[in-house]
Each structure stands twice: as C-alpha cells, then as structure tokens.
Design brief:
This protein has a single domain, classed as Rieske Iron-sulfur Protein (3-layer Sandwich), CATH 2.102.10. It has about 120 residues and is mainly β. The strands form three sheets. The chain has a four-stranded antiparallel beta sheet, with no helix packed on it. The protein binds FE2/S2 (inorganic) cluster (FES). FE2/S2 (inorganic) cluster binds next to loops.
Length: about 120
C-alpha cells in the first residue's frame, strides 16, 4: 500500500529556518521535534532524537558525504534513508521534504487506522 502523507509547512524560505553554524536546526512540526539539515542545496528532515540513546541530533554535524553524526556516540545516519551507516543497526526516522512555490513542506505519514477509512 502506498504511504499517505499529510503535508505541513516548514517555512516560506530557507532564510526563515534558523540553522546553527553546523547546518542543523531544531524545529517544531505538528507537535513533533524535528531536526532539519541542509546539505548540497537540499533540505532534509529527520527525528530530532537519535534512535540509539536519544542524543539531540541538531547538536551533531553533517559529514562530508551527507550523513548526520550524533553528538553523543558519533553514530552516523544517512540523511536520505536514515540508515545507520556506521553499522550499529539503528534506523533514524526520516521525513520527505518538498519545495513548492509557496515554501518548504514536510510529509508525515497518516496513522494506519485513518488510512483504512479512506
Ligand atoms: S545517542 Fe546517538 S549515537 Fe548514541
């Protein structure tokens, strides 16, 4: 079954996102804390908390190949897939991001029960 997303506006433009010097930002979307990353002209969105032990990923950094590195134990995750590229077996939740004429939007999967009703 195709995933159904509900789209939430992140910001009108990149200038409206308060990135730290590390290229990362902590952001609220629909009651969830999100980590926004900007790498090679692309905006990415992941969970704020590291799946290993809850490190705040917005305090980490992005390495030269586009992985986000957790500040606590330095596990690395692909910004595109969330795959734990250093091999510890964790997955970081990622969210699709779309650039539209009126801004940047983040997609959240609609909960399973609602999908069945449609
Ligand atoms: S909490 Fe992120 S690597 Fe341990």
């Amino acid at each position: 079954m195709d995933k159904k997303y509900k789209w939430y506006k992140i910001a009108d433009s990149l200038e409206d996102i308060l990135f730290s010097d590390n290229g990362l930002a902590e952001w609220d979307i629909n009651g969830k804390r999100i980590c926004l990353s900007f790498f090679k002209e692309q905006l990415y969105a992941t969970s704020l908390k590291c799946p290993h032990a809850g490190g705040n990923l917005s305090h980490g950094y992005i390495d030269e190949t586009g992985n986000i590195v957790c500040p606590l134990h330095r596990f690395k995750f692909s910004l595109q897939t969330g795959k734990n590229v250093t091999g510890e077996g964790y997955y970081l939740k990622t969210y699709p991001v779309e650039k539209r004429a009126n801004g940047y939007f983040l997609g959240m999967e609609e909960s399973g029960i609602l999908n069945w009703l449609k």
